Amino acid sequence: MITFAYLGALLVSIGCLALIDRRFGLAFWYDARRSAWTVGLGVVGFLLWDVAGLLLGIFARGDSPHMTGLLLAPELPVEEAFFLTLLCYVGLLAWRWFDRTAEHRAAGRGPS
């Protein structure tokens, strides 16, 4: 039986991040092209890291009844790509938030 619980939770979380992004204009609503490159390169880099770990026997796919069972490659579940997207998007939003806060403080306007 295929269940989409984990994948669904990841998609909802990414959607909520997009709402926060839109509200504050931090990443994609500030510069979509640069944000897409940033998140995309991060995901590709982490996927290469995962593949290297799998090939070296450091990483292994765990079984969970909440995952779809669909694989991008042997031992690499499709949910991993969405998790890495979530991870990179959170990192980008946090960086932009702290950067914007530092700019406002340097200008003497306080945090926004």
Automatic annotation (TrEMBL):
Q: Where in the cell is it found?
A: Membrane
Ribonucleoprotein recorded as keyword: no
- What is the native source organism of this protein? Cellulomonas wangleii
> Which key words are in the record?
Carotenoid biosynthesis, Isomerase, Membrane, Transmembrane, Transmembrane helix
Question: What name has this protein been given in UniProt?
Answer: Lycopene cyclase domain-containing protein
Annotated membrane topology: Multi-pass membrane protein
* Membrane-crossing residue ranges in chain numbering: 6-24, 36-61, 81-98
Write down the InterPro entries for this protein, in alphabetical order.
Lycopene_cyclase_dom (IPR017825)
First-listed, main subcellular location of the protein, grouped into a coarse class: membrane
Pathway, per record = Carotenoid biosynthesis
